[in-house]
């Protein structure tokens, strides 16, 4: 598995699937979810709501609507919109997203900072939990993962967690 860190708008990436750090209700109002809905269209949220409730630790795949990405993987980090969460939810959501990507045969996915917005998880904690799940994933797919965000603090946390995970 190749993992890259990139400063990018996840709603504009030409990948097989983008990850939405969702809520269990499928409501896409703010943060990454809101950006994906605004750029990709309301049908993304409509499909997510039809699949709700989506448990933390589970994930569903919907259309990407008008996004470059043809699919969105909704991996809830919280049950209701704007909930504060613990870092364990970040790990569970990341694992669920990877499993969903593998099940659908996606080669290239993009994952933003999970739980780092309204969830209240620090970028460092979230990045460590996410990288731990990437390292634990043993399937052949996805083979390329982009850890993306527009926030420099989150990008630095991704880079540090990746370096830290490679040390003996």
Write a concise synopsis of the structure shown.
With 168 residues, the protein is α/β, with parallel strands linked by helices.
Please tell me about this protein's structure.
This protein is of the alpha/beta class and 168 residues long. It has a single domain (2-165), classed as 3-Layer(aba) Sandwich (Leucine Aminopeptidase, subunit E, domain 1). It is 39% helix and 17% strand. It has a six-stranded mixed sheet, with helices on both faces. Helix 4 (123-136) links the parallel strand 5 (108-111) and strand 6. Helix 3 (87-104) runs parallel beside helix 4 (123-136) and helix 4 crosses helix 5. It is globular and about 45 Å long. The relative contact order is 0.21.
Structure classification = alpha/beta
* Alpha plus pi helix count: 5
Helix share, percent: 25-40%
CATH superfamily: Leucine Aminopeptidase, subunit E, domain 1
Ordered list of secondary-structure elements with their pairings:
Blueprint: E1 2-7, E2 17-20, H1 31-40, H2 42-51, E3 60-63, E4 71-74, H3 87-104, E5 108-111, H4 123-136, E6 144-149, H5 152-165
Parallel strand pairs: 1-6, 2-4, 2-5, 5-6
Antiparallel strand pairs: 3-4
Helix pairs in contact: 1-2, 3-4, 4-5
């Amino acid at each position: 598995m190749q993992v890259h860190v990139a400063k990018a708008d996840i709603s504009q990436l030409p990948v097989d699937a983008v990850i939405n750090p969702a809520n269990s209700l499928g409501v896409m109002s703010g943060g990454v979810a809101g950006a994906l809905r605004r750029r990709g269209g309301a049908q993304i949220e409509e499909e997510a709501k039809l699949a709700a409730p989506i448990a933390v630790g589970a994930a569903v795949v919907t259309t990407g609507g008008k996004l470059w990405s043809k699919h969105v993987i909704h991996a809830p980090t919280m049950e209701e919109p704007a909930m504060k969460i613990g870092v364990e939810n970040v790990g569970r959501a990341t694992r669920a997203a990877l499993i969903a990507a593998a099940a659908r045969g996606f080669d290239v996915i993009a994952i933003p900072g999970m739980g780092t917005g309204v969830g209240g998880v620090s970028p460092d904690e979230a990045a460590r939990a996410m990288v731990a799940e990437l390292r634990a994933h043993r399937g052949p797919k996805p083979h390329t993962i982009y850890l993306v965000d527009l926030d420099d603090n989150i990008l630095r946390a991704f880079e540090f967690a990746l370096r830290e995970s490679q040390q003996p």
